[in-house]
Amino acid sequence: MEMNQVQLKELRQIRHEMKRFMMIYKFGLDEMNTKLNILKEEFQNVHEYNPIEHIKSRIKTPESIMKKVSRKNIDMSQESIKQNIHDIVGTRVICSFRSDIYKISEMIQMQKDITVVDFKDYIKNPKPNGYQSLHLILSIPVLLSDREEQVFVEIQIRTVAMDFWASLEHKIYYKYNKTIPENLTKELTNAASIANELDHRMEQIHKEVGNIKGLEDTEDEFDFLQMINDNTNHLTTTFLKSFIREE
Prior knowledge:
GTP diphosphokinase activity; five-stranded mixed beta sheet; transferase; RelA_SpoT; 58% helix; alpha+beta; 7 helices; Beta Polymerase, domain 2; NT_sf
């Protein structure tokens, strides 16, 4: 009976420590998502174009963490897990165009409290199966009541087409228990090439639209300046001053 009480006490302690351990990672994920949402809202409200389509986040379950610990053959301790498993929490940023991926990556890396731990470009160097994405492992500070903790967060940045392909490949991978039939592997590789071609075509269209819009904006500015200087319009000084913000 006394032994059971000791075991129960130990289990409660382990559960408490695991809960606190996972909570710190959740806070790190919250910090990262706040930064990304600020960028997204800034683009929505200040700039003419928002490169972020949507943001998805996830936290590994304790069971998934334990499986990875066993697979990597590392010590079953919090410190060992912290140092060796860097994808306990992650965020996926979905963009419209390939060029957006590198812009967002650069914006993230410019943040002073973020440290880049690892950088993998599977867009310039796709995986053999056709997988494409930009992966970042970042270290971000979490300020607790009694200390500061550095938390690893994985960021994946990809286009809508890349994300659609990766989602389908993931479902097929686990449906066939990680052994995909050869014919489906070939189909997925072909689909990856088609998605890649689509991204390139959409990027080109995006650039052409941007060039046309740039010309239209220049013409609008010229027309406005010409209107102001045209004596036949009789724009009063008071009317023009109303557009100037007083200091």
